[in-house]
Write a structure and sequence with these properties.
This protein is an alpha/beta fold. It folds into 2 domains: about 10-180, Rossmann fold; about 195-310, Heat Shock Protein 90, CATH 3.30.565. Helices cover about 35% and strands about 25% of the residues. It has helices spanning about 20-35, 50-60, 70-75, 80-90, 110-125, 145-155, 175-180, 205-215, 220-240, 285-290, and strands spanning about 10-20, 40-45, 65-70, 100, 135-140, 160, 165-170, 195-200, 245-250, 255-265, 295-300, 305-310, 325. Strands 7-6-1-5-4-2-3-13 form an 8-stranded mixed sheet, with helices on both faces. A 5-stranded antiparallel sheet has the order 8-9-10-12-11, with helices on both faces. It is elongated.
Amino acid sequence: MRAGNMSGDAFRHEALFYSGESDFLLGTLPFIRQGLERREAVLVVESVEKIALLRRELGEDEALVMFADMAGVGANPARIVPAWRDFVEEHGRGGAGLRGIGEPIWASRPSDELAECQRHESLLNVAFAGGRPWRLLCPYDTSQLSRDVIDEARRSHAFVVERHVELPSPHFRGAAASGGAFDGPLSPPPEGAATLTFDASSLGDVRRAVAGIGVAAGMDVERLADLVTAVNEVATNSVRHGGGSGTLLVWQDSRSVLCEVRDRGRYAEPLADRRRPLSTREPSGLWLANRLCDLVQIRTYPTGTVVRLIVRHEPRQPAAGWSWAVS
């Protein structure tokens, strides 16, 4: 059963609440088949297990659907909006209909990634507001996820599908509020974190400090170069836009090397780290950081902005994901 505004004249962001495999199929297969009947381009960004499940159930129709592995596309959640933008731009030419399924949140995601996934879900409403109409269905497994996660999904989606009934979400925060300053808490750095105050004259010290911790952590040379480049870009932003100076903290834990850049500026553009620069003259520091790091966390507090960059010890997932295959 479907309800609400079905005019198709705007981006339609829907949360699908399901419990288990059968319920997942009951919620997603009709959505896919309706798109195929309308000759819409359909992209499913899911786990490899759910992709295999959908392929099997779709039969011959699976050749008409595009699939991409969310573990690659959304390893860093800030990469998902650019991927959906590429899909819309590439397959929506000439007014073609579009719809997608994307499940970036699952129970085993670490808490730091989960927070960024939830931020991503809100920012989708900003990224596609006022643009061409298309539909995005975001499944949430209620048998695995906490009540807090489900409640947040009600706030970040304009529509919810629950018990196979689709209704407007009375808790939706709205597109404007979805892009508001994000001031969620970050886990505190350890007391022994290396700390450095910097300005334009000491960006070289920033790079050396990051490189020193990375070498001590045994980082791969290529990955360390990525981290140094990303931190240098963010620190340069602090000098240019954050009051001329900032503070760097660097530390490692059992999984990652972490760098935090703090300054007195205000982060006012919610999509700055998700919008591909249109030219080499545009600022690209945060965009580049998300291409190079496993996770970038941006917070705006009354005292200024904090950008935390995280590189895992294990091999990095590729930043691509907008090259899907139709098979």
